[in-house]
Sequence to fold (210 residues):
Amino acid sequence: MGEMNASAGAVIRSSAVRTQVQERLSTTVSDDYFIGAEDVLEVTVWRNLDLSKIVQVRPDGRISLPIVRDVVAVGKTPVQLADEISTRLKEYVQNPIVAISVKEVNSYNVFVLGEVVRPGRYPLKGRVTLLQGLTIAGGFTSVAARNQVVVFRAAENGTGEQMLRASYDDIVLLGGISQNIELKAGDTVVIPSEAMVTLPGISKGEGTSR
Fold:
């Protein structure tokens, strides 16, 4: 009985140590942050420098590590990826403790195109609204159709694309705060010129899918 209690106590202590180490080593953008291509990760295997490594997520969504080789990283949280690597290392290392630190966020970008002063790709370093995104891109040009802003966004089910329509005047002058949406990774914001009578595929109303 004494041996069983000692064994159980050791398991509990081991689990507690594992949790404390992971919390101390892990640095994530947020609990629900999903790793993307080009992100730079620091993979730390506790007390094993040979297996610890700083890696960049490849365009195919994988990272390469000693022993376990290629591991799919895209679409997983740092904790999920750490758990998977830990599971795969158990064949070679006794009780591996793995932590993932996100060193650089390179996959969270939005694209602002059309009649803005500085069109291009911009990284999302935090919460950014539509108005903030337009400001980052330098604001409207003199010929911008500022009341016909369109945000193209991938559908939540992963198939197709949504088109979300917004009016600058509605947001700023008429209290249309709901149109000042929070931008998400991969969004493309398009500001047409006043010379364009219509933008194909856009109908009045909130958002449509195609």
The helical segments are 2-25, 78-89, 130-136, 168-173. The chain is about 25% helix and 25% strand. Residues 109-209 form a domain with the Outer membrane lipoprotein wza fold like fold (CATH 3.10.560.10). The mean pLDDT is 81.
